[in-house]
Amino acid sequence: MYDLDPPLVTSLLAVQVPKGWRQICRYDDETNTTLDVPLGTTAFFSGYRLYELLSEEEKHFVLTSKVEYAPHPYIWMSKAKSRSNGLGIVSEGLELSEDELPPFEDDKIKIYPMTWMNPVTGRLGMMVYPTCVRKIHLEDGSILDNMSEIRERLYRPQRRAINPEYVYTHDWEEGDLVLFNNHGVMHSIVGSFKDGVEVRLFR
């Protein structure tokens, strides 16, 4: 998200994973949504399905806007709290200021479209990492930099795509190798572990 572009494909290789346990994942929002998942699972959702779920107004917004990611984004957001459902972070003003970050160069800051076209199928997908976004460049040339508004404008549409019927949770076995399109699929670890009991190791 800074200096280097994300890869087109991400790979996850399960080296050591817990076996046999399941958990109830609670979204902890106003919907009271729950999802039964294997312990240590990775959840995936489709940016293509997400785009199809958008209203026409939302489609116009994501087709004509670009996101700017923070320099050293994971350091920038290191003090912030994640949303309980894993989709972005809570706006509490805890992001580091530019003065608190390691040195960075403006020309290495990444600005990307909010939608990507699959070169094989031609389908459009919305693909934005909401945790790392610090600005949205709008169609008229203005820049949205209010973090609460940025996160709300990204969260509202993305939240639809994590409804249980749209989420795939992989039940890992040791040796499993998963490859996925980084321009069309979002992923997140789900659940929690007891200290010193379960181990989850990936390469």
UniProtKB/TrEMBL annotation:
Co-factor requirement: Fe(2+)
UniProt entry tagged with the keyword Metal-binding: yes
Organism lineage string: Eukaryota, Fungi, Dikarya, Ascomycota, Pezizomycotina
Family label: Belongs to the TfdA dioxygenase family.
Protein name: TauD/TfdA-like domain-containing protein
A single MF term (Gene Ontology): dioxygenase activity
PANTHER family: ALPHA-KETOGLUTARATE-DEPENDENT XANTHINE DIOXYGENASE XAN1 (PTHR43779:SF2), DIOXYGENASE RV0097-RELATED (PTHR43779)
Alphabetized UniProt keyword annotations: Dioxygenase, Iron, Metal-binding, Oxidoreductase
Residue intervals of the TauD/TfdA-like domain: 2-201
Annotated Gene3D superfamilies: Clavaminate synthase-like
Domain of life of the native organism: Eukaryota
Record has Oxidoreductase as a keyword: yes
